[in-house]
Design brief:
The chain is an alpha/beta fold. The protein has 13 helices and 10 strands. The protein starts with 12 loop residues before the first helix and ends in a 5-residue tail after the last helix. The structure holds phosphoric acid mono(formamide)ester.
Length: 317
Amino acid sequence: MKNFTSVADVQNPIALINEAIALKKNSSAYSDLGKNKTIGLLFLNPSLRTRLSSQKAAQMLGMQVMVMNLDKEGWALEWNDRAVMNGNKTEHIKDAAMVLSSYFDIIGIRCFPTLTNREEDYSEHVLKQLIKYSTVPVISLESATLHPLQSLADCITIIEMSKSTKPKIVLTWAPHIKALPQAVSNSFCQWMKALGMNLTVTHPKGYELAPEFADGIPVEYNQQKALQDADFVYVKNWSAYEPYGQTPVVSEDWLLDEKKMHAANARFIMHCLPVRRNVELPDELLDGKRSLIRLQAENRLYSAAIVMKKLIENKAI
Ligand code: CP
């Protein structure tokens, strides 16, 4: 069974990116491909881009789409095997997945981390239980540790906008008022490594990313130094991996601005959205000529479409 849960599920990432770019140029070419097929999009957490881009991508391929806010509209699910269900959980994932597999040809799921239990989050228990009991392919719409459709869209954006074959890319931590998952940053690191990109990560001490995704990527704790001559600056907040889900106090100023970008001779800024304006990034950068946020969001359509196309065709992703 083919699933799409990380770059590890992709045979040739650069070929997939190029196919997505080709699909973007001819987006009506496959409008019959998914005829008589249905995708079910299940959300345990909120979403704007992932939900709507996945629906639109499925429609682009001629598929029917059903969306369910599983956390609010479904029965409370039990995710653990051999559970004695005498508490507040009404339906086991084993039964739910069997039913969903009989309704859908592909299932997408969004399942964020708890940020309280690292072992459980990093084991991807929820995603893996759905995959275990589904008999149709599963697409991650952002899991506890990874956001592969976002990373694929980000890679499409970088390839489209890059002047060189080896651009300098920086992933920088940004301030936030809440503890956020590490999924977007983990995933970005994973895809950059798979593509052999020149990536540096910069963050305050205490915000080191999970070794399983960030090992081998240079870390520069001085943000201004890291930014020097960067072609793409990916801005994202994340909570600490250790102590897990915490937000250690940062006394230095990590909010980027035009002055810092200009001083470093850095070029584009990227952000996956949603963004807290003037907390994570200032208006002047988000609305200015350096901003690729709209293109990244647009490319979510083609990252979802190319993955769905491969699954419909039953081809290697
Ligand atoms: N970037 C992203 O995944 O956006 P949503 O959370 O709105 O889907």
